[in-house]
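anyone else get weird line breaks when pasting these?? whatever heres mine. first is seq + C-alpha cells for prot A
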Amino acid sequence: MKKETICIQSGWQPKKGEPRVLPIYQSTTYKYETSEQMGKLFDLEESGYFYTRLQNPTNDFVAQKICELEGGVAAMLTSSGQAANYYAVFNICESGDHVVLSSTVYGGTFNLLTVTMKKMGIACTVVDPDAPIEELRKAFQENTKCVLAETIANPALVVLDIEKFATVAHEHGVPLIVDNTFATPINCCPFEWGADIVTHSTTKYMDGHAMAVGGAIVDSGNFDWTKYADKFPGLCTPDDSYHGVTYTEKFGKGAYITKATVQLMRDLGSIQAPQNAFLLNVGLETLPLRMERHCANAQAVAEYLEAHEKVAWVNYPGLKSNKYYELAQKYMPKGTCGVISFGLKGGRSAAESMMDQLKLAAIVTHVADARTCVLHPASHTHRQMTDEQLVEAGVAPDLIRFSVGIEHLDDIIADLEQALGFVK
C-alpha cells in the first residue's frame, strides 16, 4: 500500500462485529484462565499482554502503523520522543561504552547524551554533520556502539547526509540511529539510505495537533547484531534478568525491539498512555495531507522572508540558495518540513520585539503542529547551552524558529508583515 493508504488502513484491523475505530484498551492488566498461561508470557514463550507498563494493544496497533510507514520490522511506542532516543541508545550501550553524536541535534537530545548519559558512564563524541567522512572516522573508538543524528536538525535545519553517516557507522560495525521527527516517513525514509534504527517524537507532526506527548522507535531489521556479538552482549548473550534468553537467538530480526520492551520498558516504564496512542493514531490518518500543506506553506513563507528588507537571513532547505538544498532534493524530494529559521537585521532584540507582535503565530515551546508557532531557541529550548555550544549546534543568538502551520497562507504572511512593521 502507498503511505497515504497505510496511514488510514494499517494497524487496527477489525473483525466481524468489532469497532471500526481503534479501541482504547484502558486497562492496566489482562486476565488469563490458568497459571500456566501467565507463566508462558513471563517466560517469553508466548506473545500476549499481562501489564500495560510493558505493552498495550492500542499502543501496539499504532506502533505497527508507524513501523509499516518507515518500512521496518518492529516498533514500539514510548512516553515521549526523549524517552525514544534514550531507549534507542541505552538498549545497546552500557557503562564504559561510547556514542558518536551529530552536533546539531535537538538541545534536549544533546544534553541527554553529553550530560545525563555521561553520568551513567557512557561517553560521547560530538561531530559536525557536515564534516568529510575522513573526519567522521576519527570520532570512532573501540568501544563505540552507535551513531545518533537527525534527518532534519531541530532547530538548525541541517539536512543529514544519511548515506555518509551510514557508511562510516557500518565501517565500524555499529548501527546508525536517525531521529526522523521533522521529515516524518512521508517525506524521508532513512532505512532506504542505510539507517538502521529510526526514532520519532510523535508529539510533533505525527500527532499534529499538540494534544499528546509521545515517542516511537522503529528497527529496520537490517543490522546484523550477531556479526558483532562481542560489541552487543546485551542482545547476543543470555539475559540473566529474563530467564537467560538470548534475544538474537530467540527473536531474530525482532531482537532489538523485544529487548527494549521486555527489559528497558519493564525496568524504566516510559510507556505511552493508551489514550495518547489513540490520539496519535487519529493524527496519523491525516499526516500525508498535513505534511503536503505544511511544506507548501513553509516554502512560500521562506521565499517571502528571503525577499524582506528587514530579514538578515533565512534557513530553509527548500530554498535554492540554501546550502542543504541538494541534499534535501536527494533525500526528501517531496518536501522537507514546515519549520523555518531566520534572523532579523536588528539582531536578538529585534527578534524579541517582532515575536511579541505576532497575532496568529503563538510563542510556545512546541513545534510542528497544525497551528503556526514561534520560538527563540537561545532563550528557551537551548538556554542550557553555552554560546560556543549554540554556535556548534547551529543556533545563532538571533535565530527565530518559525513553525508554519496549515492555516491559509495569506493569513500567515499577513501576520508576519504586520509584526515586522514594528521592527525598527
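and prot B, same format (seq, then C-alpha cells)
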Amino acid sequence: MANEEGKNERIAELGAAKNEAGDIFCLSIIGEIEGHGVLDSTRKTTKYEHLLPLLFSLEEDEATKGILILLNTLGGDVEAGLALAEVIASMKTPSVSLVLGGGHSIGVPLAVAARRSFIVPSATMTVHPVRTGGLILAVPQSFDYLERMQNRIVRFVVEHSGVKETAFRQMMTATDTLANDIGTLLEGEDAVKCGLIDEVGGLKEAIAALYSFIREE
C-alpha cells in the first residue's frame, strides 16, 4: 500500500512512473523548463532542480535498466535545459525520447540527448536562435555571450543527432517560416528527414527500441 501511494505521489509531482516490472522509468518533460527563476504558478513547468537528482538516482539504481523520456515542451531556461540534456547524454543507462505535441526551442537538445529519438507525425519542433528575456545591455559582451551560448547548443545538437551543422544553422535563421520570428517549424517527418530526430514513431516503437537497448546491455 505504501509503495502504491509513493508511486502515485511520484506521478503527481514529477510526471514519472515505472512499469510493472520495475526496469523502465518513464519521465515526462512538459510545459516550460524552469531554471534559475520561478515561473508564474499558472504555468505548467518542469523544474530542473527536481530532474537532476532524479537522473542521478536512476543512473545509480541497478533495477532501472532503461529510461523513456516523453517530451511536450515549449522550451524555457536555456542553461537549465542544456544541463539536463548533458546529463541525459552522459548516462550509461539506455534512454529513448519521444516527442509528443511539441519539442520546441531548448526542447530540441533534450530530444536528441537520448540514445534514440522518436517523434509522432503530428508533433512539431521549433528551431530558432537563442533568445533572452528581460533587460540586457546592448554592448559587444552581451552579444558575444548569446553567440557563445548558441554555439554550445548547435554543437550539442550536431554531436547527438544526424543533422548537419550548416543545415541546422540555416534552420535557426530562416525568415520564411515563422510569421513573428526567425527560425523553422518542423513537423514529425520533416524532423526525421533533416536528421534531427532518428525515427517517426509512437509509444510502441519507443518502448521496443528501449527494450532492444536493454537486451544489448
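btw re prot B: The radius of gyration is 17 Å. The longest helix spans residues 140-159.
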